[in-house]
Design goal:
Blueprint lengths: L5 E3 L2 E3 L6 H14 L6 H7 L12 H22 L5 H11 L2 H10 L11 H15 L15 H17 L4 H12 L5 H6 L3 H11 L4 E8 L2 E8 L2 E8 L2 H18 L23 H12 L5 E7 L6 E10 L2 E6 L6 H18 L4
Antiparallel strand pairs: 1-2, 3-4, 4-5, 6-7, 7-8
Helix pairs in contact: 2-7, 3-4, 3-7, 3-8, 5-7, 10-11, 12-13
Length: 358
């Protein structure tokens, strides 16, 4: 019997034998976790929401799992990266145990379908988040277009606590069992490629001796975040969620600040021995070759599309991580993805020329 006993008329009476459906349910989750519970009741509790009647919810387990995962990840990062200082270790830990990261883990492994609950609106939010992830070209570390539902991160933390208790509070065994679920673990190189936009924006402004201000407000149910540097408006974004609006405003501002460093004359310019119009032929390949030469990570391209199916328009953003920081450039609208990528690469090449990289 894997279900707990219950109190009936003052006496302990066993619950009915588990149904084939519940046997399958336990086996399926254990297969995902690659771990067989000695006390399957812990697994049942870890996947029970407070809205489900007559059953203990995961809230106590989530309380433990939050701290346990943070400590387990801290131990791993400390041992795996002896070259990193406290600040960089803290940033890595924050990314690896964030609500965004854990929610994506839950989506990747399909854990939400096993949650017992009675909240239809929660289903809708999880579905919206999962669809947004599917539409992404690349993984996003700090928040995409849809806010990560906290319930997804709660599930991961609760499962971690359930295993931790089942292995008699052995943190090392927990990590051996649970690490595979969290893969890929974000390391220094990955974090360099996708720095926290708000943190990066503050660092860029601080290095340039500029004052950064992020103003937030609401228009009806829409949250609006606006970025000002030295009192001058840079960019703004809106979203139903305050955090998403702020993140996207920071991302856009980073692109705008870099764009301001471009030469004022876009018509003609010489870069490393070639002349030409504003758009550089083969700019994407030239940017790739530069990254190889400088031993930087490969450029990352992301696209946004708009318009009807028969007449789509594309805007691409390119990002590279250099020794001095991460540079992002948004191109102009084009009718083909290839042209949109080349436009963004051209802009970034010209901006890098201003930094004397070319």
């Amino acid at each position: 019997m894997f279900f707990p006993s219950r109190l009936v008329s003052g006496d302990l009476a066993p619950l009915p034998p588990p149904s084939p459906e519940k046997i399958y349910w336990v086996s399926a989750v254990e297969g995902i976790l690659n771990y067989k519970f000695k006390k399957p009741a812990l697994l049942e509790e870890a996947l029970t929401h407070s809205s489900f009647p007559d059953a203990p919810s995961y809230e106590r387990l989530e309380f433990v799992g939050d701290s346990v995962l943070e400590l387990a990840v801290s131990n791993h990062l400390f041992l795996a990266h002896p070259e990193l200082d406290q600040g960089r270790l803290s940033n890595l830990r924050s990314v690896n145990v964030s609500t965004e990261k854990l929610a994506r883990v839950a989506v990747r492994h399909g854990l939400y379908r096993f949650l017992r609950h009675n909240v239809q609106s929660m289903d809708d939010k999880v579905t919206e988040f999962a669809r947004a992830i599917e539409e992404e070209d690349d993984a996003v570390a700090h928040g995409g277009s849809v806010k990560a539902p906290k319930v997804l991160a709660d599930i991961v933390e609760s499962l971690a606590a359930a295993i931790y208790i089942d292995v008699n509070f052995d943190l090392q065994r927990l990590w051996v069992i649970f690490r595979g679920l969290l893969e890929p673990i974000v390391g220094p190189e990955e974090l360099q490629q996708q720095p926290q936009p708000i943190t990066m924006l503050f660092e860029v402004c601080q290095k340039q001796g500029k004052k950064l201000e992020i103003r937030q407000g609401k228009k009806g149910s829409t949250n609006i975040a606006s970025v000002y540097v030295d009192g001058n408006f840079i960019a703004s974004c809106s979203s139903e969620h305050k955090e998403i609006a702020k993140l996207n405003a920071a991302r856009r501002s980073l692109s705008q600040l870099l764009a301001q460093l471009e030469p004022s004359n876009r018509g003609m310019m010489e870069i490393d021995g070639f002349d030409g119009p504003f758009e550089i032929e083969g700019a994407k390949q030239k940017l790739h070759e530069l990254c190889d030469k400088k031993k930087w990570p490969k450029p990352i391209y992301r696209k946004n599309e708009s318009g009807p199916p028969h007449s789509k328009k594309f805007i691409c953003t390119v990002q590279i991580a250099t020794v001095d920081g991460v540079y992002t450039m948004e191109g102009e609208e084009r009718s083909r993805v290839k042209d949109a990528e080349n436009c963004a690469a051209s802009l970034l090449c010209r901006a890098l020329h201003e930094y004397n990289y070319l």
